[in-house]
Specification:
heterodimer; A: 338 residues; alpha+beta; D-amino Acid Aminotransferase, Chain A, domain 1; Dna Ligase, domain 1; seven-stranded antiparallel beta sheet; 31% helix; 21% strand; B: 516 residues; four-stranded antiparallel beta sheet; 18 helices
């Protein structure tokens, strides 16, 4: 079936774009706070002040004539990430994992020359990737080291976790996995896999690629049934604390796990998308209603996380076999639905 | 809650004002709600421009003759500080004169006429025989060529009417012989051709005169008069199109002047010229009477778009359609959920489509954008800064547009000349944005957004060219209020978009594990 009914979506509590723009973004996100999250340098500074771990800033480029200093700037680092300060949706991000004899290697193994990086930087400066094409700046960050838990679930990129935080309460979470189809990017439109994560436990609940359920990573063939995000409480607390940090009531918090440094905030989003509902096979509306029903917002992120874990934990897990002792049941399920 | 209550109050207020005004105009002032085919009024405005030299100025201008089939509703003459008089009130040869002691610089005078065709049936009355034509004085070579031509034509014709038609067709033949080429002198203009035909007819002894007139087409600006030739066949005058030889008065052709007198004489000025604007208003005959009767009292009409000069009215006809386009965009984005590249670009494309007609416009749009994308993909390899690259794309777009015009002109496809109506800077931005989209999100996204923009544009076009919509928006600008109210209401819609039913389609299925 290619279309579903309005009735069905409503009964599942799915929030549509209009409802999101009107009832969530328009209601909880005052316009004047946007720069805090749209400018990643500002976000980084704010996070550091609040004691939240962020990837290390290696350098910035603000002007076109500084582009020629890039070589000196990069020579000290073997691995780095180049990002537009005001980019959105993962656009314009260049990852270099190795530097050797004036050649820079991307995660795919392709080598690029310095001139390629220079052009990329000057494109960012002239606003190619920023919202509304405004002139932008470039930031160079240290590369995140993938956590061993995710090694089996990643094709090239580092998986990142998107947590939706409403008035400080984490209400839904999703892990985004790059695939070969998405060209190493964690963008669901382009074929990345979205894995719904249980707010209560950090376990994988349900996964989709191109909007349809999948049961294992399309490239590594690893089943999601034994995927659990580590440091789960710490991670939710980080996300919850971003509410105080920015003042934005409806926030998408992007978190990565570094092998050595643990959870880090890489980006905040004041207009988080709605695919997270498909990944979780659940609508946001009932959880929004639960938070809106609260009379006061708890000022302590930790107790907010406890509230969320109590109220938004999954009732049943859609990809874990009920009898965990029998892995054959899962295989059976996977072959049946494919 | 309070905010939405306030909004609905405003919406209801706007809605009632809009509908109230429409009903008032319809019921009290008698504007019909639907366009009526038979009864329309042409308003023609002649604008006379010249440079006064500082000496006394006399401008004399020919007016269209009053004919029984036409009802002249209203005639206005306007020009600042000029004395004005009607020179001759002869119905056939009307002329007016503006005069001033001294003037300097650019001067403008207006003449405005509202006219409609009545349903009177008239017998064509026999007219007095005209004087026999005077033989023209021609040089030897020319005379020989003329006589040869007349002889060939005469051999093929039986009476003056057939003779004239045959003569005009021979002169316009696409493969002229040496004789015809000498006579018709392709470099000369329309007036030369008219003179030539009159001279040849005079040589043959047929009485003829020039007739100048205006083709009435809605929304035309900066038009000029077209020459026709009229002959007397012994009983009556017959009108001929001097380009095709077809006889009889074409529909929607307003005869402005008969005979060889000048259209415009300016003494004390130079660089004088006349241009005509035409607009069609649709009223019922009853309302024409009501309308002119109300003219003095009804402020609503006195302060309406009708009181503007025709040139501005024509522009407004287009501008008043824009809200319809905006409404379509709102519906497509909020209710349907179609993604377009650039929020209001579809309206601009729709406006261009109105000028070019649908199919031609879409073909041109696709050619320009796809060629632009190809060239842009090369430009991206040249390592340019963004602003320079977009500027380069603008030049590329203009080059493409110029080539399309030239090639299609050579191929004889006149429609493709309309390509200039496309907003070039917007096209350049579209190309730039689509090529970035291509690099970042792949061709699929480019296709989705491109198709979305085009679909929205076509739907907006279909609404904006609908005769009823066009009629209503122009004659009831109050509809804009209703439109505004609709858009305000749509701005409150928080339900699902149509495309979200597809986006969340997998949510509609019961989950696999539910079946067990």
């Amino acid at each position: 079936m290619l279309l579903t009914s309005v009735k069905r979506l409503r009964s599942m509590g799915i929030i549509g774009m209009n409802q999101r723009n009107f009832g969530l973004i328009g209601r909880y996100n005052p316009r004047h706070l946007y720069p805090l999250v749209d400018d990643k340098l500002k976000t980084k500074r704010l996070a550091q002040e609040a004691g939240i771990t962020v990837p290390q800033l290696l350098g910035t480029v603000h002007y076109q004539h500084d582009v020629r200093r890039l070589k000196d700037m990069l020579s000290a680092y073997n691995q780095f990430v180049i990002k537009p300060v005001k980019g959105s949706g993962g656009k314009g991000i260049l990852v270099i994992t190795e530097q050797d004899h004036n050649l820079y290697y991307k995660p795919s193994g392709d080598a690029v020359k310095l001139s390629h990086i220079e052009r990329h930087v000057s494109n960012i400066l002239s606003g190619l990737h920023s919202l509304g094409g405004k002139p932008d700046a470039v930031m160079i960050e240290s590369l995140i080291q993938i956590d061993p838990v995710f090694e089996d679930y990643s094709y090239e990129g580092i998986p990142d976790l998107r947590v939706i935080v409403l008035q400080g309460y984490p209400i839904m979470a999703m892990l985004r996995l790059a695939t070969h189809a998405s060209d190493g990017r964690a963008n669901l439109h382009q074929g990345a896999v979205g894995v719904g994560i249980d707010i209560g436990t950090g376990e994988a609940l349900h996964a989709v690629q191109y909007g349809d359920p999948v049961y294992f990573h399309p490239d590594t063939r690893k089943p999601f049934s034994n995927l659990t995000v580590p440091h789960w409480d710490k991670l939710l607390e980080l996300a919850a604390a971003c509410y105080e940090m920015t003042g934005l009531g409806y926030l998408g918090v992007d978190i990565v796990l570094d092998r050595n440094q643990g959870p880090m905030i890489i980006e905040l989003n004041a207009r988080p998308g709605l695919s997270i509902q498909v990944a979780n096979f659940a609508g946001l509306a009932p959880r929004v209603a639960a938070v809106e029903a609260l009379e006061t917002i708890d000022p302590d992120p930790q107790s907010r996380v406890q509230f969320s874990k109590r109220n938004f934990a999954a009732v049943r897990n859609l990809i874990r076999p009920r009898r965990r002792t029998n892995p054959a049941a899962f295989t059976l399920l996977a072959t049946k639905t494919n | 809650m309070q905010a939405s209550a306030r909004l609905y109050t405003v919406v209801i207020l706007i809605l009632f004002t809009g509908i109230g005004l429409i009903l008032y105009k319809h019921l009290i002032l008698g504007f019909p709600l639907m366009p009526d085919e038979k009864k329309f009024v042409w308003t023609i405005e002649a604008k006379i421009d010249f440079q006064a030299t500082g000496e006394p100025v006399i401008v004399s201008f020919a007016l269209p003759p009053k004919e029984p089939r036409l009802t002249f509703m209203e005639e206005d003459f306007a020009s600042s500080d000029y004395g004005f008089s009607e020179l001759s009130s002869d119905e056939e040869q009307r002329r007016v004169q503006w005069s001033k002691r001294s003037a300097k610089g650019a001067q403008t005078a207006y003449y405005r006429l509202s006219v409609y065709e009545n349903d009177k049936l008239i017998e064509s009355q026999p007219s007095d025989d005209p004087l026999p034509p005077q033989k023209p004085e021609l040089d030897e070579v020319f005379l020989t060529a003329s006589l040869t031509l007349l002889e060939t034509v005469r051999a093929k014709s039986a009476n003056p009417e057939i003779f004239t038609r045959e003569l005009i067709q021979t002169l316009n033949s696409p493969s002229p012989n040496q004789n015809q080429r000498l006579l018709r002198n392709d470099k000369a203009g329309e007036d030369y051709k008219t003179d030539l035909i009159l001279n040849l007819l005079a040589l043959e002894g047929i009485s003829a005169r020039v007739v100048r007139g205006l083709f009435l087409e809605d929304g035309r600006r900066r038009q000029s008069l077209t020459n026709f030739v009229e002959i007397h066949d012994g009983q009556k005058w017959i009108l001929f199109d001097q380009d095709t030889g077809r006889s009889g008065k074409p529909g929607n052709f307003l005869i402005w002047q008969r005979g060889g007198q000048s259209l415009l004489d300016v003494i004390g000025g130079k660089n004088s010229q006349v241009s005509f604007s035409i607009i069609k208003n649709i009223h019922s005959t009853r309302n024409l009477v009501v309308n002119s009767g109300m003219h003095a009292q009804a402020g609503l009409i006195d302060f309406s778009i009708y009181s503007l000069p025709i040139e501005q009215q024509t522009a407004f006809k287009m501008i008043l359609l824009l809200p319809i386009g905006a409404l379509i965009v709102v519906i497509m984005r909020i209710l349907v959920g179609i993604r377009t590249s650039g929020t209001f670009m579809p309206i601009l494309i729709a406006l261009a489509l109105i000028q070019t007609t649908l199919i031609t416009g879409i073909v041109i749009f696709l050619i320009v954008v796809s060629t632009g994308l190809l060239i842009r993909s090369y430009l991206s390899r040249l390592n340019l800064l963004l602003v320079a690259r977009i500027s380069a794309v603008i030049i590329v777009v203009i080059t493409i547009i110029a080539s399309i015009s030239i090639i299609s002109h050579k191929l004889g496809l006149s429609q493709a000349l309309q390509v200039t109506f496309f907003p070039m800077i917007i096209l350049a931005w579209t190309i730039e944005r689509m090529s970035v989209l291509w690099e970042e999100d792949g061709p699929r996204e480019v296709f989705i957004q491109g198709a979305g923009s085009l679909l929205t544009a076509v739907i907006a076009y279909l609404f904006m060219t609908n005769r009823t919509v066009e009629y209503l928006t122009f004659n009831f600008p109050e509809l804009m209020l209703v439109n505004l109210a609709l858009i305000l209401i749509l701005g409150q819609y928080t339900g699902y978009r149509l495309t979200e039913l597809y986006r969340f389609h997998s949510m509609g299925r019961h989950h696999a594990s539910d079946k067990r």
